[in-house]
Amino acid sequence: NRQLHLVRRPAEKITPLDFRLVEAPVVNPGEGQILVRQKWLSIDPYLRERMNDAKSYLPPQPLDEVMAGGGAGEVVQSKHPEIAVGDQVIGLGGWQLFATMNGAAVARADTAQAPLAAFLGAAGMPGITAWYGLRKIIAPKGGETIVVSAASGSVGGVAGQLAKLSGCRVVGIAGGDIKCRYVVDELGFDACVDHRAGDFDAQLAAATPAGIDGCFENVGGVVLDAVMRRLNPFARVAVSGLISGGYDGQPVPIADANMFSTARVRMEGFIVSDHRELWPEARAELAGLIASKRLKYRESIATGLESAPGALIDVLEGRNFGKQLVELP
Ligand code: NDP
Questions:
Q1: Strands annotated E in 175-271
Q2: Locate the Enoyl reductase (ER) domain: which residues (predicted)?
Q3: Which fold has domain 125-273?
Q4: CB of 300 closer than 6 A to ligand 1?
């Protein structure tokens, strides 16, 4: 087996030197367990937070152990009564080629509906994050204006498309012209604003002439502040993530909390893994939308286990374009 271990905790920015490639024997599955030959690793922003030795909703990633993370692959040995050799599954296999996991902790991917890798993206944890935040927190009504940040990403792309399916005016926020054009032309958002543009605030105002009723927030910082200033009374902000800051232990401020009282705005954070009971329903709906071509997504694919640290750095610096994956050939 080949594995990537975290060998030191990054100060602020991570580097490939924080990891070490390790050869280790494959662990045979015990009763109730399966052995998965992983084909895809899911590279997600939350992995950065796990590298810190800080109190959070997840325990810190232990040093000198396999880096945790989602993956997808094929079952090559099974000692679980309901999982067969050859099944395509998703689970928390970590950064390694072969993962021994409890059968009860994986989900089967319905590859008749969508490709295996989609169950790590639009029909996986990120898509379900979008589904939960949009449906359960923003709960949009037709005709409302919904803003989505990191709009070209795996979470943002799904959130915006679901809002469109609910009959909303949907405005994306993304970094750069190419991502913005993709968000409008391919994903079908009504408009997209470049957060790096000098006149970002003015462009956001022009794209939201009736104000903002709901915000699916992935970024925080100046992006969220600009949205907050345009919230309508009774607007809902679903805080999915604040990828622009916080990894160095510094607080992520909100410029104007006055909106909570004057505009009766509701801001609610959530962690998708708190709502596991909804995952099968959400996953089935999202996979069905992919199968019927009503839900689109794109992927950034790096190749080989060694590329995983660089792929995570790309996500944290906005160089990925769509769901970031590592393919294990
Ligand atoms: P994405 O594919 O959206 O990749 C991250 C994107 O964030 C980058 O491509 C970049 O897009 C943007 N970004 C990065 N740094 C900055 C910055 N400093 N300022 C502005 N934008 C930045 O990743 P995901 O779809 O996987 O995740 C999106 C968000 O969802 C993250 O905040 C993540 O933590 C959150 N999340 C939350 C979950 C939950 O349970 N609450 C579960 C899963 C994800 P651009 O170039 O357009 O700026």
A1: 191-194, 212-217, 231-239, 266-269
A2: 14-326
A3: Rossmann fold (3.40.50)
A4: no
